[in-house]
Design brief:
Layout lengths: L2 H25 L28 H16 L6 H16 L9 H32 L2 H10 L6 H4 L8
């Protein structure tokens, strides 16, 4: 396992630990400071503490990890999975350039960004097809449930069951 992957795994485990601590505190009234019945009034609704919130990118990374584990990949399936995962990570890593140019340059930059994202999304679709072709029927059932959630929402289009 190379160092960047090890660091990613450690980060994900740390985030999972923080999320689990937040869930345990909420479940068992862990408001701290001698309070009974939970934390601050802000904690009583659907609002989560800042330490348990994950960025959209971290949520995608977490979903990738969960999907990989649920698929129970055989060794020969690891290369197609890795290709798929690399494409997702590349897609979420794309950052728009800072504004500061005139309007025409900003529009040109946005058009270029969209062309690049389209190419990345096409690469991702190709990698997904190659991965899917290696899966058993049982793994395909898992993939049907989980793989779509590994694509960032901005690129995924409407989710099934969506009203829009």
């Amino acid at each position: 396992m190379n160092l960047p992957r090890l660091l990613l795994a450690a980060t994900l485990l740390g985030a999972l630990g923080l999320a689990a601590m937040g869930e345990a505190g909420a479940q068992f009234g862990g408001g701290g400071m001698g309070r009974r019945g939970g934390g601050s009034p802000r904690d009583s609704g659907g609002d989560r503490s800042e330490t348990t919130r994950l960025s959209a990118n971290d949520q995608i990374r977490m979903q990738l990890t969960n999907t990989r584990l649920a698929l129970k990949l055989a060794p020969e399936q690891n290369p197609p999975w890795q290709s798929y995962e690399d494409k997702v990570i590349a897609l979420i890593a794309e950052q728009p350039q800072s504004a500061g140019d005139n309007a025409l340059k900003q529009i040109d930059r946005n058009a270029e960004l969209l062309r690049n994202r389209l190419a990345s999304m096409q690469d991702l679709a190709d990698a997904a097809q190659k991965l899917y072709a290696t899966l058993s029927d049982e793994q395909k059932a898992v993939a049907e449930r989980m793989l779509g959630a590994t694509v960032p929402a901005a690129y995924a289009g409407p989710r099934s069951g969506s009203r829009f």
